[in-house]
Design a protein that fits this description.
The protein is α+β, with helices and mostly antiparallel strands and about 150 residues long. It has one domain. The protein is about 25% helix and about 35% strand. It has five helices and nine strands. The longest helix has 10 residues.
C-alpha cells in the first residue's frame, strides 16, 4: 500500500512547467504502426481497376421505379477523379463509363414482407428473414466502346 505524502514532501518536489512537457512531447513523436504501410503503398494501387471503370459503354438507361422518369446525380469513385454530374432520362441511349453503369445497376432497396408460416411467440406473423431485392435502375449495354 502506498504511503500518503506529507505536505512538506509535496512542496519540495520540483514543479514541471507545462511549456517543457509540451515541447518534449512535440520533439518526440511516436511513429504510428500503420505509417510504414501507408508510405509503402503506391499512389494508385488499383490503377488497373480505375482504368477499367473509365471504359465507355453504350446502352439504354431504364428507370424501373418511375416510367419516363429522370435521375440526376453526381459521381466520383476514385481519388483524383473529378465529380461528374449526370442527368439520365428513361429509355434514352447514353455512352457512360463502366463504373457509372455498375453503380446504376447496383442501386436497389429491400422490400420487407411478412410470412404467414413464421409466427412469433405471441402468434403474430414475423418478418421474412430474406427480404426481396428490388432494383431501382437498369443500364442495358448495347455495345462496349474501345478507347
Amino acid at each position: 500500500m502506498a504511503k500518503a505524502k506529507k505536505v512538506e514532501e509535496v512542496a519540495q518536489e520540483p514543479e514541471i512547467k507545462k511549456e517543457e512537457t509540451a515541447v518534449a512531447v512535440m520533439e518526440q513523436p511516436k511513429p504510428s504502426p500503420i505509417a510504414a504501410v501507408i508510405q509503402a503503398e503506391k499512389p494508385y494501387e488499383f490503377e488497373a481497376q480505375r482504368q477499367a471503370d473509365r471504359r465507355k459503354v453504350k446502352g439504354i438507361f431504364r428507370d424501373l421505379e418511375v416510367k419516363g422518369g429522370v435521375i440526376k446525380f453526381a459521381f466520383k469513385k476514385w481519388k483524383g477523379d473529378d465529380i461528374v454530374p449526370y442527368e439520365l432520362h428513361d429509355g434514352q441511349e447514353y455512352e457512360l463509363p463502366l463504373g457509372v453503369v455498375k453503380h446504376l445497376n447496383n442501386l436497389c432497396h429491400y422490400e420487407d414482407s411478412f410470412s404467414k408460416d413464421l409466427l412469433s411467440a405471441t402468434g403474430h406473423p414475423m418478418k421474412n428473414p430474406n427480404p426481396k431485392k428490388v432494383s431501382r435502375f437498369s443500364f442495358q449495354a448495347t455495345e462496349y466502346m474501345q478507347d
